[in-house]
Amino acid sequence: MKNIDAILNSLKEDNNKSKDPSYFLIHQVRYRFILNKVQSIAKEKKLRILDVGCFPYHIGKALEELGHNVYGIASQHEPITNKNISIINIEKENFPYNNNFFDIVLFNEVIEHLPQSPIPSLREIYRVSKKGAFIMITTPNITRSINRIMMLFGKNVMYPISVFLEDNGKGGNRYHRHNREYILPELMSIITAESWQIYEANKTISYTPFREKLIPDSPLIHVGKIINYLLMIIFPSLRDTIFVIGKKN
Q: Is the pTM of this model over 0.85?
């Protein structure tokens, strides 16, 4: 079985041929974090995993390479052609799986995009999860350092008003923007309200100044990012990502 670094390197080479090679590079640190968490739960077992919001199919492909049986849910505005991928609206439709079916459900970088309540989706995730299964959620930390700096200078951390002017005033695609971001206690409260037991919850750094980039930062910007990175290490509340892993009893 390949190790995680070898798999990510292989995916990076394939991604370099894609239309948007920068996306993989931006999120590579987060991918490694998620895959390591899954493998720590799997303990070398082959698991049945559901990746909700699986576009682009980087995590799913990596999990397949690690030997897991992977299913995914994508949306109509980000479709994927794959026999194990279902195209549904998770806010309005039931998941097309039986009760007690999955060992792990991933809900990464999705919850912040939902314009409506995440509770229906979380209830479906709970339904299709086995007893003893896990849910893993990652999402941006709304109190991250960049947001605090922007607010300090009087800037809004939400999407710009220009979004409302798109499509002849009807507004831009609501699912491509962050509609609601969270702090860690909020995310934990949502999980426990839907009967999950908190297995692990913390903040992490997903976007480091040392990750590969197609266009390098200027020296001044790079130094600023290193200072910000050091601040995030020293002060966890400033870190860019929060995550919660819940367990179904």
A: yes
